[in-house]
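Budget justification aside, the reviewers requested a transparent look at the raw inputs and outputs of the sequence design task funded under Objective 1. We therefore reproduce one unedited record. The lines immediately below are the structure tokens for a 407-residue chain.
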């Protein structure tokens, strides 16, 4: 009996040794797995920070593009400054222009920044750019067509991966990439479209023919038509005088795009024009006559500050200005289709059509009288329909595109 007990005790001692070895192996595997998990978490944290920086830089750069070389230069400055605003583990990032790219076409930039095989930002920066992609400073593209900004943000030197390098066969590529640019231009205009025209001479530059602040005729008085029966009115919503009134009031639906044709409205249509114009004018929140657009914006800011601070004497209403508490800001702003003087002068009879060449923004400075009105308004700007704008003049051009983060 004692012999059997002795053998059993010896077997258990041997088993204790094998359990210790198995436990050590399991512990090593657990440590490696824990290290891998930490690496993965670290990787995603780095990647998120870099991607946020790349997104912000691409958007900042794209906001400056305005179809000029100056816009590209400003895009470079803004994108680099935005990049270097970011910190990684409390260390600043020294990001230069070598990882900033431009293109006229999204697909060209996409195929370069997002190749099928992973590429580091350093490898992209060392590579030659294709003919349709421009690295910052290369100046090989037509500035008027550049519409997209691409960013490749390399990981800082402090971004290290520990355990994963011994487990993964391919190195982990850590970087932030982004592409931003203008959205596709809208093909037409619907909001605030007015049934009047701006006649332009295509042989004269816009900067010479029209300047912000000019007061221009949008509808001529009787006896002064620009072509037989045409007083610069349009049949946007129909041929009748009531249709002109409804269109001026903003009570009919429809859109126009560059290249569309419009039909001139024959007849002076004075009464409906006056009614529609004045109804639209009175629907604004500011109803004072004989003010400029700059004054309007000042009064709007004062009115909004007054409403935001009721009873505060530091925010008074401007003296001598009339307000409509039920009105809406912006009603006195009109979008007007432009047509060529060549179309107008070649018009004969009552079956003319004009081709829309562009759109312009006007501000209604005053009510118009009944009877035989000559309708005038303050010219603000042409509408930029192909490119976005950044900053600029006191009355910047309104863009029908917006900056989009594509990738």
């Amino acid at each position: 009996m004692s012999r059997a007990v002795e053998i059993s005790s010896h077997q258990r001692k041997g088993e204790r040794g094998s359990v210790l070895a198995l436990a050590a192996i399991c512990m090593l595997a657990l440590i490696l797995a824990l290290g891998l998990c930490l690496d993965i978490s670290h990787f995603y944290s780095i990647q998120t920070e870099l991607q946020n920086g790349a997104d912000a830089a691409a958007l900042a750069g794209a906001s400056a593009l305005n179809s000029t070389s100056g816009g590209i230069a400003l895009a470079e400055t803004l994108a680099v400054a935005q990049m270097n605003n970011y910190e990684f583990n409390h260390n600043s990032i020294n990001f230069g222009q070598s990882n900033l790219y431009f293109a006229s076409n999204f697909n060209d930039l996409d195929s370069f920044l997002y190749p099928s095989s992973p590429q580091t930002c350093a490898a992209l920066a060392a590579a030659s750019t294709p003919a349709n992609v421009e690295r910052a400073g290369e100046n090989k593209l037509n500035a008027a067509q550049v519409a997209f900004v691409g960013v490749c943000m390399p990981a800082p030197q402090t971004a290290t991966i520990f355990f994963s390098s011994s487990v993964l066969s391919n190195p982990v590529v850590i970087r932030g990439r982004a592409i931003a640019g203008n959205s596709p231009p809208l093909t037409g205009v619907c909001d605030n479209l007015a049934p009047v025209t701006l006649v332009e001479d295509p042989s004269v530059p816009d900067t010479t023919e029209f300047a912000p602040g000019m007061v221009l005729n949008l509808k001529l008085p009787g006896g002064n038509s620009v072509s037989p029966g045409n007083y610069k009115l349009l049949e946007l919503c129909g041929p009748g005088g009531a249709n002109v009134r409804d269109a001026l009031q903003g009570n009919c639906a429809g859109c126009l795009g560059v290249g569309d044709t419009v039909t001139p409205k024959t007849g002076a249509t004075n009464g409906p024009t006056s009614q529609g114009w004045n109804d639209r004018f009175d629907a604004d929140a500011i109803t004072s006559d004989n003010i400029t657009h700059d004054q309007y914006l000042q009064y709007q800011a004062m009115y909004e500050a007054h409403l935001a601070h009721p009873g505060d004497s530091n925010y008074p209403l401007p003296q001598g200005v009339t307000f409509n508490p039920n009105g809406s800001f912006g009603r006195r702003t009109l979008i007007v289709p432009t047509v060529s003087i060549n179309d107008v002068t070649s018009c004969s009879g009552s079956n003319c059509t004009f081709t829309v060449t562009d759109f312009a923004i006007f501000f209604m400075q005053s009510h118009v009288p009944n009877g035989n009105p000559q309708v005038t308004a303050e010219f603000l700007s042409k509408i930029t329909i192909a490119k976005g704008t950044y900053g600029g003049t006191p009355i910047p051009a309104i863009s029908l595109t917006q900056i989009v983060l594509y990738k």
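The two ends are 80 Å apart (CA to CA). The chain has ten helices and 15 strands. Computational costs for records of this kind are itemized in the attached budget.
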